[in-house]
Amino acid sequence: MERIIKIGKTLRNNWKKSIFGAVIVYYGASKLKEKYQINILMQAACKEAVKYGDASIPMERNPTVITVILNPVANKRKAKKDYEKYCEPLLLLAGLQVDVIQTTSEGNAKEVVENLRGTEAIIVAGGDGTLSETVTGLLRRNDEANRFPLGVLPLGRTNSVGNVLFPGGDGVEKVKQLIQSCMAIIENNTTWKDVMKIEPIDTGDETPSKPVYALTSIEWGAFRDNMAKKDKYWIYGPLRGYASYIFNGYKDSLTWDCSGTIKYTPPCPGCENCITKKPEIKRKWTFFIPNAQAAQADTKSMINPECSVVNELCFKSTDFRIKTQVTNGIPALSVGLGKNKYNYTEFVSEGWRRLRGESDVPEVVKARTIEFRPLESKPDVVIAIDQEEFDVKPVKVTLLPKMIKMFCKSELNC
Length: 414
Description:
Layout: H1 2-13, H2 15-54, E1 65-70, H3 74-77, H4 79-93, E2 97-102, H5 108-114, E3 122-126, H6 128-139, E4 150-154, H7 160-165, H8 172-187, E5 190-200, E6 212-214, E7 217-221, H9 222-228, H10 240-248, E8 258-265, E9 311-317, E10 319-327, E11 330-337, H11 344-355, E12 363-367, E13 369-374, E14 382-385, E15 388-391, E16 395-407
Parallel strand pairs: 1-2, 1-3, 3-4
Antiparallel strand pairs: 5-6, 5-16, 7-10, 7-14, 8-9, 8-13, 10-11, 11-12, 13-16, 14-15
């Protein structure tokens, strides 16, 4: 008893050191527990992957070839290490022939995919930026390469599509997410995703560039600008998003004025005006591709008089967003507009609600095609397409339903 009292007095007299020591012990114990749980997960995943690797294949066919587009600098240069530690072992144990191509610069993924040959699936190991470049390179080709499956290993700082297909988090949950994404590739579970085609509108001032393709969203305004700055407040850890709204809510560097016009056509389930029947193409590689293409409806007899009706909307807001959406089985582009003006308190409060998932940009229009023309194009104002920044210019956005086949969890009705 005296020994316990003595220890208690020592801890009380050195309470600062005691608290510091307790924090260190707790942190160390949590890290050891996390490492142990990750090892158990990887052991189970490796055993499952080996089952596929040990399965016999016909003598006349070679192992399945997949190409991994790896961005080694994604997520503060952690992407390559995480890929080699958690993803590559599973793919190799499953008997896949893995060709890894590391990107060397911004836009390099587009060039790689545009010229890629001799693969049966493309896997993106990176974030939203690498995925956007890969999709753009894939759809710029004219050889129906989009019929090959596209996989996502969510290794970037922002993983909008990856988090939808494979919900995850940090630590152990992040490893679970990577394991699920790898097993979806190994098990060949796929689903079709809608894509937005963004084409510059020829204004005569300069030569129009090639179209860009996006899977998630087009964003413009103060809220997007604020979230792009949040990593500057890394010192606040998981609260850096909240801190960003506090420190930027009064600054003129955010885009407070989003003004322009949109011309749009309404959503359409498919008719002779908006669907073109594609011919069947014979392929050399067929492991991931069905024996016959999915049957398409005879659109020649389908007529929708409202499909070509053009509506116009003038807007002025602090927040503008376009994203893909499916309502009652009909794919559409959802246009959201925020309030015209926020004071500092309203902006911070709304931003915090969005961080908690309690609020979102109000939807005002559903469309199939959109012609977006900003009121004025300033050189220092940018618009985000799948988290990648572009100059604000007039563009035409077209919805391409079920354009990309992506690997997903089996529970997602793939």
